[in-house]
Automatic annotation (TrEMBL):
<keyword id="KW-0963">Cytoplasm</keyword>
<dbReference type="InterPro" id="IPR001980">
    <property type="entry name" value="PPAT"/>
</dbReference>
<dbReference type="InterPro" id="IPR014729">
    <property type="entry name" value="Rossmann-like_a/b/a_fold"/>
</dbReference>
<keyword id="KW-0173">Coenzyme A biosynthesis</keyword>
<comment type="similarity">
    <text>Belongs to the bacterial CoaD family.</text>
</comment>
<feature type="binding site">
    <location>
        <begin position="110"/>
        <end position="116"/>
    </location>
    <ligand>
        <name>ATP</name>
    </ligand>
</feature>
<comment type="pathway">
    <text>Cofactor biosynthesis; coenzyme A biosynthesis; CoA from (R)-pantothenate: step 4/5.</text>
</comment>
<keyword id="KW-0460">Magnesium</keyword>
<feature type="binding site">
    <location>
        <position position="86"/>
    </location>
    <ligand>
        <name>ATP</name>
    </ligand>
</feature>
<dbReference type="InterPro" id="IPR004821">
    <property type="entry name" value="Cyt_trans-like"/>
</dbReference>
<feature type="binding site">
    <location>
        <position position="75"/>
    </location>
    <ligand>
        <name>substrate</name>
    </ligand>
</feature>
<comment type="subunit">
    <text>Homohexamer.</text>
</comment>
<feature type="binding site">
    <location>
        <position position="29"/>
    </location>
    <ligand>
        <name>substrate</name>
    </ligand>
</feature>
<feature type="binding site">
    <location>
        <position position="61"/>
    </location>
    <ligand>
        <name>substrate</name>
    </ligand>
</feature>
<keyword id="KW-0547">Nucleotide-binding</keyword>
<feature type="binding site">
    <location>
        <position position="5"/>
    </location>
    <ligand>
        <name>ATP</name>
    </ligand>
</feature>
<keyword id="KW-0808">Transferase</keyword>
Length: 148
């Protein structure tokens, strides 16, 4: 979770009565944090919004949306390259389940951020405190220090 993610969640929380930050459970992908740890961190850093709920899902996002009566997916776009991929997904999601996609332009302060870039910088001792919430920075540094 970067400050870019948090910015999109916060802005969406001002537009909708409830925002669900859904974490994909993908058993084929081993992340730096477990699903449970990701949920814990996401819950902690979004707690101040009051109308953000954290949940998990497996399979297709549109199936999760349909099952939970969620009509809109909010996506942050950092660059034109993001748009090409996300537009295809949005069109497929609409075709499969009628789920709409709202694209939000990322705040320029966060347009270069990606989770993989943050992990790479932190791995080599770089200061990522301006780019992630403090709780995430703390856990990231802690996790990476045990892997060396």
């Amino acid at each position: 979770m970067t400050n870019g993610h948090l910015d999109i969640i916060g802005r969406a929380s001002r537009l909708y009565d409830e925002v669900v930050a859904a974490v994909l459970i993908n058993p084929r992908k081993a992340g730096l944090f477990t699903v449970e740890e990701r949920i814990e961190l996401l819950t902690e850093v979004t707690a101040s919004y009051g109308n953000v709920r954290v949940d998990t899902f497996t399979g297709l996002l549109v199936d999760y949306c349909k099952a939970n009566d969620i009509p809109v997916v909010v996506k942050g776009l950092r660059a034109v390259s993001d748009f090409d991929y996300e537009l295809q997904q949005a069109q497929m999601n609409h075709g499969l389940a009628g789920v709409e996609t709202l694209f939000m332009a990322t705040n320029p302060l966060f347009s270069f951020l990606s989770s993989s870039l943050i992990k790479e910088v932190a791995k080599y001792g770089g200061d990522v405190s301006a780019h992630v919430p403090e709780a995430v920075r703390r856990r990231l540094v802690e996790r990476l220090s045990t892997q060396t």
